[in-house]
Design goal:
This protein has about 160 residues and is α/β, with parallel strands linked by helices. It has six helices and six strands, in the order βαβαβαβαββαα. It has helices at about 25-45, 60-70, 90-110, 125-130, 140-155, 160-164; strands spanning about 20-25, 50-55, 75-85, 115-120, 130-135, 135. β1, α1 and β2 form a beta-alpha-beta unit.
């Protein structure tokens, strides 16, 4: 019996253009996510000059900006960062659900990795924990996912690089 072929991304040769699209709302949390993402990208060999950061008002506006970035800049990957914190109204569900659904659709439409680092949490304490304290830094984790997917897409013969 032939061995089963396995393919997975790595963190070697992941240089290229990355765009971080950031929702400013809850910036006291989101700023740490951005720092974590940039730090991880640079530590893994991405040239700082190949990292662009685009700011939007909040998580709801992320998908439109991500779509424009994908159309115009054609990066290897996009990292979407933001924080949606549950309040006393259903607004949380609409913003978080709409943002997440649209990002997933855009990833498939443009065949480009979009790492979703948008926190959807019940409290400010949870947001702080996920932006660099007890629960790690979800911005750094999103950057790791982006690089791994860039590597995987290159191995599978896809991604922006192949179409150019």
């Amino acid at each position: 019996m032939e061995p089963i072929s396995q393919v997975e991304g790595s963190f070697v040769d992941v240089d290229g253009r990355y765009v971080i699209v950031v929702g400013r709302f809850n910036h006291h949390v989101v700023d740490s996510l951005v720092e974590g993402a940039v730090d991880i990208l640079v530590r893994h060999g991405v040239d700082a000059e190949n990292i662009d950061i685009v700011h939007v008002p909040g998580a709801w506006e992320l998908p439109l900006a991500v779509k424009q970035v994908l159309k115009v800049a054609r990066p290897e990957a996009v990292i979407a960062l933001g924080a949606v914190i549950r309040g006393g109204t259903p607004h949380f569900e609409y913003v978080a659900g709409g943002c997440n659904s649209a990002l997933g659709t855009l990833q498939l439409e443009f065949e480009t990795p979009i790492a979703n680092g948008v926190l959807t949490v019940n409290s400010i304490e949870q947001a702080i924990e996920r932006s660099g304290t007890k629960a790690g830094n979800k911005g750094a984790e999103a950057a790791m996912a982006a690089m791994e997917m860039v590597s995987l897409m290159r191995q599978l013969g896809g991604g922006v690089e192949e179409e150019a």
